[in-house]
Amino acid sequence: MDVHLINAYLARAREILGERTDTEIEYDNTVVAHLEKGMDIKSAINAANRKHPDEALKPGPAHWEDLMARYDYIREHKVILKQLGMKE
């Protein structure tokens, strides 16, 4: 694998996701896990909010589409990291 390409991907992923604390990563992982079980984004966020109340999101109606895009990206990012043998 091209190390420069991997490093460029990881740098871009950090730009897209921003700096996240360990608890924010746990929250995001919970949302992704629920999405992978077939939940819709609203149900997945609500479930994650119950499990991680300190990280709870309270999106307005205009935010759901952006949140779905974000969590789709995170889900794909996790697959790529796994293929590379890396953790977050």
Give a summary of the structure in a few sentences.
The chain has helices at residues 3-17, 22-36, 41-51, 64-84. With 88 residues, the protein is mainly α.
Description:
The chain is an all-alpha fold. Helices cover 70% and strands 0% of the residues. The mean pLDDT is 95.
Q: Which SSEs are present, and which pair or pack?
A:
Elements: H1 3-17, H2 22-36, H3 41-51, H4 64-84
Helix pairs in contact: 2-3, 2-4
Total separate domains = 1
Unreliable sequence segments: none
Largest sheet: none
State mean pLDDT (0 to 100 scale). Answer: 95
Distinct helical segment count:
4
Structural class: mainly alpha
Radius of gyration: 14 Å
**H-E string:** HHHH
What oligomeric state is this?
A: single chain
How many beta-strand segments?
0
Question: Which term fits the overall shape?
Answer: elongated
Alpha-carbon distance between the two ends:
19 Å
Residue share in helix? over 70%
Bin the strand percentage. under 5%
